[in-house]
Amino acid sequence: MLDTRVRSETPTPDCLQDDLIAALAYGSLAPDASAAVLPHVASCSRCRAAVASVARALADPVIARELPGARAGRRWFRIAVPLAAAAVLLLLLSSPWGDRLPGHRGPPPPPPATTPIPRSPVGSVAAAKDLRWSPVVGADRYRVTVFDETGGVVYASESSDTVVAFPDSVALVPGASYLWKVEARTGFDRWSPSELAEFKIALQQR
Amino acid sequence: MEDWVAELERGRFDAAWDLFLDRYRRLIFAAIRHYAQDYDDVMDVFARACEALRADDLRRLRSWVEQPEHRARFSTWLVTVVRHLTVDWFRHRDGRRRLSVVAEGLPPLRRRIFELVFLDQRSHIEAYELMHAAEAPTLTFREFLSELRATYHAVATGRRGQILRDLAPTSEAVENLPADPAGPSATSANEQSQLMERALGTLAPDDRLIVELYVLEELPAETVATVLGLANAKAVYNRAYRALAVVREHLERAGVGQEDL
Predict the structure, then answer these.
(1) pLDDT tens digits for range A45-75
(2) pLDDT tens, B194-205?
(3) Looking at the predicted complex, does its ipTM rise above 0.85?
(4) Are B79 and A57 a contacting pair at CB < 8 A?
(5) According to the model, what pLDDT value does residue B150 have?
(6) For residue A9, what is the nearest residue in chain B, using CA coordinates?
(7) Among partner residues A4, A63, A66, which is closest to B189 by beta-carbon distance?
(8) How near does any CA of chain A get to the CA of B242, in Å?
(9) Structural domain containing residue A20
(10) Residue B115 contacts A, CB cutoff 8 Å
């Protein structure tokens, strides 16, 4: 019965200006400003639809790629934190005192089977024609995203397979580093993300 | 400061426009293409967007630059403005004749729903009442909602899906059908609508917005989390689950059983 309500299309003086709609849809509105406008947006179907429409647009990988320095900052933060954590972990595991750490019992346990693992490309590679990852039991779809060094989305795609080919339109720059992750859909709107994997197209030797 | 802003502040509008367009052409095109896929439509909307942004010595751009405090990033504001211009352009251009082309491939009942909802901008209830009173007196509300859902899915999967979603007067999800096969009457649907409005009104604004965006607007949970400033999608699931439980409890106290939800 939720869908039986009627939406008013007539703007009111309280309706949000474009900059507020943009900031709210992007999640960049200051908490106090957000708290001030939420009651109106919650009850105004016109503004709510505009926020939803813009949020949907900003989440579109094609648009996200064109946002200059915008999401990149936040996304890079999300990437940088796990990367830093992984680096610390790697340092601990490979350091000379690592073997003496209390509780260390050989190699770390394998990741849970509910998480996909990026297989290739990883590290320095001559070319990257496709992305491959390990399957997850029960997953019916995979979502893969490739980021450049600034955190900008270079390529995003979905597949029911565990491999997706790079289209010709994606030009990977030799020498540049890229990060990618894959998410497995394991339930209704439930996605299990992999760790970020890094790869680099090796420069051609002359 | 971006170079086009510097030129704008010097009053050199042509130079500012050239620099602005050089900088943001791709973003404007990407935003338009999000809503429109037809090449001719994209080019026409792009021309209209440029005309609107350049009008009155770049009035729109100046108004943004002159704001003492910017609440949004320029690029996200620009996407919002382009969305606005795109929807207006389609609404202005797409009279009954052009939109009717979309309806041609639909079965008769869905075509009629499309005409009432998308062309005549009727609410769902109004559309049902009109159909029930005239050409389909035996059509139950549940059957109507089922057909309505199929109509939304049919038009949203076409080449004009995104823009149609914005052109429709309502975009509420067509979910939670009444369980009674006979379906409630339009009158009881109206009563339910008011009850639901009251039940949602008991929620805190952010909880209500979670329900509205996640359940009704069908935004991905991750996007809802971004809008509401929540930690992750799981927080959205949890809050939506609790909020819907509150709504359900309110409705049950008002005499609406779970089987009616």
Answers:
(1) 889 889 999 999 998 888 988 886 544 444 4
(2) 777 788 888 999
(3) no
(4) yes
(5) 79
(6) B169
(7) A4
(8) 16
(9) 12-59
(10) no
* Chain A CB within 8 Å of residue B171 CB: yes
- Total domains, chain A: 2
Average pLDDT over residues B96-101: 58
Among A145, A54, A115, smallest CA distance to B223 is for A54
- Let me know whether A113 and A197 are in one domain: yes
Chain B residues with CB-CB distance to A53 below 8 A: 83, 165-166
More confident residue, B98 or A19: A19
pLDDT at B29 over 70: yes
Most confident of A8-17, A66-75, B19-28: B19-28
Helix (H, G, I), strand (E, B) or coil at B225: helix
Q: In this complex, which of A6, A26, A57 lies closest to B72 when CB atoms are compared?
A: A26
Q: A103 and A149 share a domain?
A: yes
Return the HEC string of chain A: CHHHCCCCCCCCCCCCCHHHHHHHHHCCCCHHHHHHHHHHHHHCHHHHHHHHHHHHHHHCHHHHHHCCCCHHHHHHHHHHHHHHHHHHHHHHHHCCCHHHCCCCCCCCCCCCCCCCCEEECCEEECCCCEEEECCCCCCCEEEEEEECCCCCEEEEEEECCCEEECCCCCCCCCCCEEEEEEEEEEECCEEEECCCEEEEECCCCC
Q: Does one domain contain both A84 and A166? A: yes
Say yes or no: B196 contacts chain A, CB-CB below 8 A: yes
Q: What is the pTM of this model?
A: 0.59
Of B26, B71, B197, the CB nearest to A19: B71
| Same domain assignment for residues A155 and A188 | yes
Nearest Cα of chain B lies from the Cα of A71 at a distance, in angstroms, of 10
Instruction: Say which residue the tokens 């251009």 belong to.
Output: B93
Chain B residue whose CA is closest to A41? B209
Residue A93 has pLDDT above 50, yes or no: no
Provide mean pLDDT across the span A166-176. 85
Query: Does B166 reach chain A within 8 Å, measured CB to CB?
Result: yes
pLDDT digits (tens, 9 = 90+) for B203-231: 999 999 998 888 877 788 989 998 998 88
Tell whether A85 and A184 lie within a shared domain.
Answer: yes
Looking up tokens 């989440």 gives A59
A133-147, B40-54, B115-129, B171-185: which range is least confident on average?
Answer: B171-185
Tell me, yes or no, if B132 comes closer than 8 A to chain A by beta carbon.
no
Q: How far apart are CA B125 and CA A144, in angstroms?
A: 41
